[in-house]
Amino acid sequence: MRSNNVLVTFGEALLPALNKHGVAPNENFNLCIAGVPGSGKSVFMQELMLSVLGVGGKVFVLDYGRSFKRTCLILGGSYIEFDMKNPVSINPFSEVPENDSAKSIEARSDFLSNFPSILATMAAPQYGTSDLQQPMLQRALISVWQKKGAKAEITDIADWLSNREESYAKELGNMLFPFTKDGQHGRFFSGKAQLSLNSDIVVIETDHLRSVPELLAVIVQNHDCSY
Q1: What is the DSSP letter of 21?
Q2: Which of 65-74, 88-97, 217-226 has the lowest mean pLDDT?
Q3: C-beta neighbour count of 205 within 10 angstroms
Q4: Which of 50, 181, 152, 32 has its CA nearest to residue 93?
Q5: DSSP three-state, residue 204
Q6: Going along the chain, which residue ranges are E strands?
Q7: pLDDT tens, residue by residue, 15-68
Q8: Max CA separation in the chain (angstroms)
Q9: CA–CA separation, 70 vs 115, rounded Å?
Q10: What are the DSSP calls for 28-88, one per residue?
Q11: CB 205 within 8 A of CB 63
Q12: Packed helices 167-175 and 133-148: angle between N→C axes, nearest 10 degrees
């Protein structure tokens, strides 16, 4: 970060900001906070979180150790602990509006454009999908949405692909199996969503997700898609 980047405090929001003069076009707002245990990193981050919310922003936290739980609950945010033994659904289809308002049409269009990348992460978390497979995921999503709307599930996507004649489509259907109703992670994406990732503040405790990085990656992407 360049020397003309400053941390604005007190009179303005406690936000990492760039001086408006001399900002290079390839710079961004990323920052790193480091310190020894007990030095106040979490306290500082919670103050920063409050500042972001105070200026109308949204906050998404991947927590480890429940440092942000109390603050999140006090602020009325969504605090989520994913337990593999007691899964709750975050089926993204449930959150997509079906009415014809301008805002809903835009949200629906964004979902149909962005969600194929999440399907790709589900199907091929390590190496990604091919240029041939990715458009097929897009076609599957659009077809399933047109038929089932907000009641759709990942299982419907996998079934649509498995019923195609193309071998690579059938392969994709099989690759999505872990996220279908009969798969290891299926109950997180089946039925109506029991949790929403659309709150202004969302805190996800990752303690139980450390052993399933492929699920954590999808959850993070799903949240990004909901924004």
Answers
A1: S
A2: 217-226
A3: 21
A4: 152
A5: strand
A6: 5-8, 15-18, 59-63, 78-81, 201-205
A7: 554 344 455 666 666 778 888 888 888 888 888 888 888 888 889 898 988 989
A8: 63
A9: 32
A10: ---------TTSSHHHHHHHHHHHHHHTT--EEEEESSSTTHHHHHHTT-EEEE--TTS--
A11: yes
A12: 70
